[in-house]
Amino acid sequence: MATAGSAWLWFSAIATVSVAPVLLSIVFFARHYQVRPEAFTTWYFASVAAGVALWLWLAGRGADLHPGGPGAALGIVLVGLSFGAAANAFLVRAVSLAPNPGLPSVMYAGASVIVFFASAALADRLPRFFGRVNTDLDRFVGIVLVIAGMFLIAGGWPLLRGARLR
Fold first, then answer.
1. How far is CA 26 from CA 19, 57, 68, 160, in A?
2. Could you tell me if 150 and 106 are in contact, meaning their C-beta atoms sit under 8 angstroms apart?
3. Which of 97, 114, 130 is the last residue of a domain?
């Protein structure tokens, strides 16, 4: 099993494999059942919340659902109502409209570049709130190469130039 140092990598790999059917199902439900992206987003994330809570409860980890106090709970809810709602509503809409449902996820993954630099800046400016992070150049180049590779796999330059697909 993964060590504490590599656990994030395994969780990320499993999440990546798990999210692929979700992204494909957006297009499937829109095409075969006329499900609008907003309806998909609402029902999907309600199910995710219930599923995670049930999963933790069945594993005997129900206490992990407690956010640590009302201030933390309010903060989480505000982030979810603003950034989370916007990001996911726009992502699901983009997937439903894209000529290839993989392309919006590539752009969405571009957030990792923003997070890479923002986490370093926040750790430097607000060390009381944010811990130190690894900012090695090779890790940043790796992020950029993965995003570039995903972009090319999803269809790449022809999609940006408006090439017609079957």
1. 11, 28, 34, 22
2. yes
3. 97
